[in-house]
Amino acid sequence: MTTPLAVATTYFDALEAGDFATVAAQFSDDVVWHQPGGNRFSGVHRGSEAVGAMLGGMMSVSEGTFALKRSAPLMVNGDVVAASVHWTARRSGAEMDGTGIDLMRVADGKVVEVWLFTADPAEEDAFWGQG
């Protein structure tokens, strides 16, 4: 049986390496993603295709520079994994350097729900802009 920690570790290892195929493989088909803020990517995204489109949009807007890394060991409570994260991104005329917490619930070896928290929502909204 794949543990929530193993799934989350695979997800973050792949994300940090830019291996988006492996990232996507960690999601259940009906994953629910809660993106904070008031920008073009904010809101609840339902399904692996919608989440993939959102992540692809972030890479496009950031001109391929969006990068995220864990800033502390992963923490587990049952089927929920918490990650303290740091991210950066650049695009023409703007930069972002943020911190936050990612929570993910894992069931049957797949990520089924994700909640993101950002320390500076205004910075993210300004960087990502309105849709």
Would you spell out the secondary-structure blueprint of this structure?
Elements: H1 4-17, H2 20-25, E1 27-35, E2 43-46, H3 48-61, E3 67-70, E4 75-77, E5 80-91, E6 94-107, E7 110-118, H4 121-128
Parallel strand pairs: 1-7
Antiparallel strand pairs: 1-2, 3-5, 4-5, 5-6, 6-7
How does this structure look, described?
With 131 residues, this protein is an alpha+beta fold. It contains 4 helices and 7 strands. It has helices spanning 4-17, 20-25, 48-61, 121-128; strands at 27-35, 43-46, 67-70, 75-77, 80-91, 94-107, 110-118. Strands 1, 2, 3, 4, 5, 6 and 7 form a 7-stranded mixed β-sheet that branches.
From the structure above, extract its key features.
about 130 residues; alpha+beta; 7 strands; globular
Instruction: Give the percentage of residues in beta strands.
Output: 35-45%
Shape: globular
The number of helices is 4
Mean pLDDT: 96
- Report the structural category: alpha+beta
What is the count of β-strands? 7
First-last Cα distance: 41 Å
State the major sheet: 7 strands, mixed
- How much helical structure, as a percent, in the residues? 25-40%
H/E series? HHEEHEEEEEH
Low-confidence stretches: none
What is the CA-based Rg, rounded?
Answer: 14 Å
